[in-house]
Amino acid sequence: NKSVHVRLNVEKSVRAKEVKNKQFEQMEYLQSVERLSFDLDVMLCMPSGLRVIRKAFDTDPRLLPRQYASIASEVAILRTLIHPNLVRVYGTSTDAGSVYVLSEFCEGGNLESIAKTVVKRNGIVGEVVLGKICEGVLNGLAFLESKCIAVAELQPRNIFVTREGEIKLNEYGSFYTDSCIMSQVSAPKPVYASPERIKGEPYTITNLVWSLGIIIVELADNKYPFNTMDSVSLLGLLMKIVRDQPPKLGNSNSWSDDLRCFTKTCLIKDPIHRPTPSKLIEHPFIRWSKTRKVNMKKWIRQVWEWDS
C-alpha cells in the first residue's frame, strides 16, 4: 500500500460524520476498481478510517489550473446536494497532473454487477426489492428535479447500493454532462436511452423514467427486454427501440398487476404523456412499496455472501 497527501475540500455531512473540515488529510490507497476508461481507487482517509472513492481525470498539464478550477467549482455545488439516495460528493484534489473527485464508497456495488451475480446464481430480484430500488431511484431523481440538476443518463452502472442496502444515484450534475468529462466517466449505454433521446430530441427528466422502466424489466426478467438476436448492430437495436412497441414484463405469475402497470407507465412511448419522477412517486406500486418493510441490508449481504 502507498500513502499520499492531497489537498482536499471537504465539509461535514450527516451521511459521513467521520469527514472533518480539514485543509489536508492523509489518504492511503486500498484498491483499484475496474471501471472502463478512467482510474477509480478506493482510498482510506487517515486517521478517520473513512473509505472513499477517488476518481482520476486526466488533464492537459498546461490547462490544469483552469480545468481544476472549473471542476472544483462544479463539485462545490454537488457537495451541497445531500440526500439519502444520492452518492455523496466530498471534494476535489489535484496531484501529478490529474484532478481527483472524492465521493462516497458504496460497498454493495452497482445494479449492473448485482444483476450479473444474481443471473450467475440462477436467482431473481424479488418484487419487494424491486419496489425499494424504484423508490430510491425516484426519490433521488425527484430531488434532483426539484433542484434543476441534470442526470447525464440512467443505467444500472450508475445506480449503487451501500452495505446498509441504501439505493443511491451517481454521476449527476452538469459536471457529468460535459462531453469532455463524460468521455472519462463511463461508456454511454444507449440501450437504456428513451426513443426520443435516440432520435436526438432535447433532454427532459422523463427520459430517465423510460430508462428506469427498462432497468426494472431487465432486473425482473434477468435479461435485456429487447430481442437483441434480431439486431445485427447497435444501430439496428436502437431502431428497434424507436420503432417497436415498448417491452413488457415477462409472463411470470409472480409479478403483481401494480408492478406491471408501473413498468408500462415508465415505458410510455410519448414523453409528453410519460410522468416525471415526482409524479411517478404517487403510483400505486410505489405507494404499496412504501408500506413494506424490507431488510435491504440483509438482501445485499445475501447477494455478495457477506458474513456480516
TrEMBL record:
UniProt KW Kinase keyword: yes
GO biological process: signal transduction
Name of the protein this chain belongs to: 10976_t:CDS:1
SUPFAM superfamilies cross-referenced by the UniProt entry: Protein kinase-like (PK-like)
GO MF, one example: ATP binding
Organism for this UniProt entry: Paraglomus occultum
Protein kinase domain residues: 1-286
Keyword set includes ATP-binding: yes
PROSITE patterns referenced in this protein's UniProt entry, alphabetically: PROTEIN_KINASE_DOM
InterPro entries cross-referenced by the UniProt entry: Kinase-like_dom_sf, MAP_kinase_kinase, Prot_kinase_dom
Keywords, ordered alphabetically: ATP-binding, Kinase, Nucleotide-binding, Transferase
